[in-house]
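Quick one, tokens below:
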């Protein structure tokens, strides 16, 4: 079962509409769909919301207010406080290896050069959390990656990203409930 969903991004208006923030976009849409509001929680270095589940349980939503390369600071503080294990965490993040509009669920693994994931793995002491890898495409040249992820997607790409977020929202309850096989089939077809 997933007890915490994290949407990675960078804080502030300057970055709000950039490719690097698609994880935070997903959480914002999920909160809107569920009628939830985020509130700042300084001790967790982020914005949090709680999503009620059946049987009086809760799934927490967290958007770190740290910069991407310090995302683990927020997640570590939250997970330690609520005693959430890495395998109970789902992290939504941008993925250069997939075209815009593709989303994949993954259990565990390395950071693949993603600084947010690198910091999470280091601070949690584990890579055994789930990931929603949201394709943003690759600029084609390694030297352009930083400026690419920190820039706004084209209107066409943004439409693709919004569409895949909308298509992903209905499967989130299955992921939270631990029905990963069903979620894999849904997202990978």
């Amino acid at each position: 079962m997933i007890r915490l969903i994290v949407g990675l991004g960078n804080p502030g208006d300057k970055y709000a509409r950039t490719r690097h923030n698609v994880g935070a976009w997903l959480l914002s849409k999920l909160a809107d769909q569920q009628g939830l509001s985020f509130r700042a929680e300084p001790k967790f270095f982020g914005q949090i919301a709680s999503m009620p589940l059946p049987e009086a349980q809760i799934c927490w939503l967290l958007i770190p207010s740290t910069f991407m390369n310090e995302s683990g600071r927020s997640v570590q503080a939250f997970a330690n406080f609520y005693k959430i294990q890495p395998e109970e965490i789902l992290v939504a993040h941008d993925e250069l290896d997939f075209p815009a509009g593709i989303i994949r669920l993954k259990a565990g693994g390395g950071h693949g050069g993603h600084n947010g994931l690198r910091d999470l793995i280091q601070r949690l002491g584990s890579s055994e959390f789930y990931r929603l890898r949201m394709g943003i495409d690759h600029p084609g040249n390694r030297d352009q990656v930083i400026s690419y992820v920190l820039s706004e997607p084209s209107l066409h790409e943004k439409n693709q990203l919004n569409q895949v977020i909308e298509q992903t929202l209905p499967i989130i309850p299955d992921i939270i409930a631990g029905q990963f096989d069903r979620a894999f089939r849904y997202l990978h077809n």
